[in-house]
Amino acid sequence: MKGKIADEEARSRLIIWIRxxxxxxxxxxxxxxxxxxxxLDHSPVFRDARGNxxxxxxxxxxxxxxxxxxxxxxxxxxxxxxxxxxxKAAKSDADHRxxxxxxxx
Length: 105
Fold this sequence. Notes:
Blueprint: H1 8-24, H2 29-41, E1 46-47, E2 53-54, H3 62-69
Antiparallel strand pairs: 1-2
């Protein structure tokens, strides 16, 4: 039942709340639809453990800049594979300083 609201009254209250927030912030149904379509067309490429995401468009977000400044390769946060060149041997670009994050202690 993930993503579903079982109680019809709770669903109705949520819809009213959403409509009021949309009106309060001047969000039109068309603007909402455009934003959803944009997100579908530009899915995230990077994601951190807190759920922050970036699709690679525009300026690098603060959370990724902070990680990069701390010495973490941004590819560590990549959620889609990096394309490999055809005919070249796959090279491991793994940052071994980060490997301990995946091992149980």
